[in-house]
PsbP C-terminal domain-containing protein
Amino acid sequence: MFWGMRFSTLSNAKDYLLAMRYASFWLSILVLIAITQAGCNKRNHEQTTPATWRSDHHDVSFQYPRDWTLLQPFLDSEKAVTAGAIDNTTGMSLVIKLTEDVPKTMVSDETYFEAVRNQMLTHASGNTLLDESETEFVGSRYHRMHFTMTNPKFDGDFRQVAYIRRTGEFCIACQLNYPVSTDNQIPPQLQSLIDGLELP
């Protein structure tokens, strides 16, 4: 377990605090999902044509089923994007986050990802990191973190897969959430969202 890990990879406490500041959006995403779950209503399942959300400021867009709900509140500005959609029946969701990055000469990838990892693990006692790797995602190289997390809203454990890419100008992240009962495979509903996903 990761509770007692020492930050041996961190150059100093100042770097870690800076990384935590820029990595703090992961907890805000969890709050965003909770708010949407609490305030949403079921939609008409008769509409089968996907809807599209597109940023007015960045090359970010995704298609989603019309019986899903857009996460609220969303953000779309020149400096940041927070957008996503959730299936209120199963709890499956996709969240996209684009934020201003800090130069890698100030905070390395290693320090940044360690800050994200530890934020997620300390958010709730049942959170567990399953694996972590570099992978191809939507045509670019991303850092991937795969967690198991408890979701009390849907009475069960969920997989959470986070894809993160830093450019030095922006940090681009995509987070997938789905029930553990899907046998550790990304469900077709989420895979179809990934297939129609546009990221810068």
